[in-house]
Amino acid sequence: MPPRRKLNEFERGRAVAWFQDGVPKREVARRLHVSISVIVRLIQRFTATGRVQERRRPGLPKKTTPREDRLIEQLAL
């Protein structure tokens, strides 16, 4: 199964607008070429929070590059 495609903020706004205009969720998913579960979760999040932005994810961003990670690994061995 291919990984789920992320919708950008513009596409999320379009999806919500189409849904509010009466377009069925399946049709919205077809128009955006995503799974219906993506649209269902988006609509649920929008009705609960009133926002279409993604939630913040915990954790700090990585400070090392993949190249530095390989170097550290080689030095440890």
UniProtKB/TrEMBL annotation:
It comes from the Eukaryota. InterPro entries: Homeodomain-like_sf (IPR009057), WH-like_DNA-bd_sf (IPR036388). Pfam families: HTH_23. Residues 51-77 are annotated as: Disordered. Residues 65-77 have a biased composition (Basic and acidic residues). This is Paired domain-containing protein.
